[in-house]
Amino acid sequence: MDILPVLSALRRHRLVMWLLILEVALTCSIVSNAVFLITSHIERTRMPSGIAEHELALVEMADISVRPNGKERPQTELAALQQIPGVKQVALANGAPFASGSNTDVRVEPHQRRRSLNTGLFFGKNLLPALGTRLIAGRRFLPEEFTDLSQALAALANDEAREFPHVTIVTQAVAQRLWPGQPAVGKMVYVGKDIPLQVVGVIESLTRPAGGLFQGAEYSMVLPINADTSYDANKSNGLLYLLRCAPQDRTRVLKAAVATLKQLDPNRVLVRARTFDQVRDAYFQNDRALAGTLVGVCLALLIVTALGIVGLASFWVAQRRKLIGVRRALGATRGDILRYFQTENFLIVTAGIVLGTALAFALNLELMRFNAMARLPWVYLPIGAVALWCLGQIAILGPALRAANVPPVVATRSV
Amino acid sequence: MLTALMVLALALGIGASMTTLTVFHVLSGNPIPSKSSQLYYPQIDPRDVFNYAPGVEPSEQVTWIDGMNLLKAARADGQALMTGGTVAVQPPQSTLEPFLESARFTTAGFFSLFDVPFQYGAPWSAHDDQNSTRVVVISHELNDSLFAGKDSAGRTLRLGGSDFRVIGVLGDWRPNPQYYDLNRGRYNEDEGIYLPLSISQVILSFDHSGDTECWGNGGGGTYMYQMHNQRCVWLQFWVQLGTPAEAAAYKQFLVQYSEQQKALGRFLRPPNVRLRDVTQWLDYNKVVPQDVRLQTWLAFGFLLVCLVNTVGLMLAKFMREQGELGIRRALGASHRALFAQLLVESGMVGLGGGIGGLLLALLGLWVVRQRPTPYASLAHLDPSMLLTTFLLAISASLLAGLLPARRACLVSPALQLKSQ
């Protein structure tokens, strides 16, 4: 197809042409950024947790008032929960990935002025087996390494580092960040007022609690602390009962666990009982909602652009009816006319995409300025380009077919 | 057909941008317009030198001891120290199960500081704070469910295993954003229980919730030692200062306080203070969710595309009318009259687009309300946004009509008539 006649014809309709180019460019820039945002938010919802997600259920309870037997109760409870048919592992923990929990600054040298890293902090007896994390170096905690939480808290309050645990297990991400290329097992980290902890094991991955996720989801450390009590000596509020069972047993186990806990101590209120899948869903619901909105905006944008192309092309065809008739009379086939309009549209959309690419990066920079998104990878530009080329060709098809159907006899009529 | 397309495109653009703009407008609203420039959130920096660098922001909350010191200094027109938490409510009717309720543990100044309305009864006094009196103020929602909405002042309510005397029921009060404690959900929070800080924290140690930041061996929020723990910040402190001069003086006082504490050896960092008013505090905490900003941006990009689209279609439409315009010109109509006619036409398109956009915005807001976000139920169109919708639609369409109308008016009557 010869491009030159198309170009020379377009030169006579510069304003309309530029409007179309501008519209395509704006659409292209918005759609490529939006598609990138959609994929990054969908990607985010797939963030791994490092734990046996489909086998876990969580129960949170709150005591109504101070308990006399606060310190002994957790042991009795865990033993009772373990008796529920189908339960494979139980733990009482201070937090869970994507849920509540704590974070801490760590240093690799004592007296360091700035932190080396901020990590999620997990503890609880039997926590790692219950979560189902995978140990990739070193060893698990030994039973004698465990300290009771009440004792650990007292150690902190009295600045007695000796009473605090001496060992820790970190995630692979922490190990690689603090000691790149070196084995982490045997290395020291420091928390609080230079409390030394030796790394004895490395787990493959364990995502941190919701509160610190923005500081690097993959950084977590685990301490051998036994949640015999809560941060408050006389209540176990804020702690999570973790139950591991087969996926199909979760609902039943949750119900039984709540009943067991209530029966052991009726003086308390159920805060929440959820499967881990529900925890994940709740954490990522905003990402899904945003992705949904963006899909809607993109579709509406593409429809509006297509309608614009259809409208202007119809107008163009109507305007050039006589010219088309003349061309047909001079021997142009229907195919020639059809291809003429298709080429014209292709050229306009291509110009729009070129301009749109520049606009896409400009928009991306603006959105990056207030931290709403990351740098746009270039692969998203071809996606926008292909989408708009297809859209343009689909939109032009109707008017172009109508143009192709103009009979040559039109040339002989005066308007 | 062209007109219908224009109206549709404009309606889509207006609908999308008004939906997001309304959400943005609701979320970025001033929660206390009458007082927002008089309420300040003092910040001081009691942390140790670890992680210190000149220019770092001070702590976002205060320790118990600093909160108490600042409260007792009473250098402001009004002040309140507070923290959020949860309390187990044991309803007076034995038929109702105990349940957990969000609570605010605060000092007597809270209610006058934030202009909190009372439906029944009155707030507690500074005297109650000192004596750790077992009194409680409840929200009217909680009063509805526990006491069937009757005046419950004087009734007894069992909270966390202890009896409290209800002394007040709040009126309709739900500031959005919930600015006084941004650790809590920022929108649509409903705290049902208001208790004196002294009884709830010193004597009964009710569960505090929200962010706790510790340093040194402060430990991850070691609740048990919190009262005496000078190494954790977990309370919010607000003051009322009537004039900018008072605010400047208060800031000076915060510097003096920091210096004095440093001299005592308690503070290790050089004085590092901030005094932000409500609006500045909300801005600093970037309280409007980023997603909402992003969506507003995108919606306006969308509107721009719709506008460009409308310009193109308008151009086509006016060019088609050129024959008719030529006749009018030939019959003596001025350029100006033709221009005015075309602008009226585009204004009508705008009106149509505005009506369509309004319907779409109502639909869009309905969709937003179905979302699981905490601010979902706030997404309603108010009169000012209704007016904005039509202003936006009509000005957008007039703007879109400007260029096409100018071109179409340049018609030469002779040429148009000849070709007829």
Describe this structure in words.
- The complex is a heterodimer of chains A (415) and B (420).
- With 415 residues, chain A is an alpha+beta fold.
- Chain A has two domains: 4-46 and 285-412, no CATH class; 53-283, no CATH class.
- Chain A has helices spanning 4-11, 14-45, 73-82, 127-131, 149-157, 172-178, 250-264, 276-283, 285-319, 321-329, 334-369, 380-404; strands spanning 56-63, 87-93, 102-106, 117-123, 135-138, 147-148, 167-171, 188-191, 195-203, 220-223, 225-226, 240-245, 268-275.
- In chain A, a hairpin with a 3-residue loop joins strand 8 (188-191) and strand 9.
- The radius of gyration of chain A is 32 Å and the shape is elongated.
- Chain B is α+β, with helices and mostly antiparallel strands and 420 residues long.
- Chain B folds into two domains: 2-28 and 289-419, no CATH class; 39-284, no CATH class.
- In chain B, the strands form two sheets. Chain B has a six-stranded mixed beta barrel. In chain B, strands 10-11 form a two-stranded antiparallel ribbon.
- In chain B, a hairpin with an 8-residue loop joins strand 2 and strand 3 (99-106).
- Chains A and B meet through helix 2, strand 3, helix 5, strand 13 and helix 9 of A and helix 1, strand 2 and helix 9 of B.
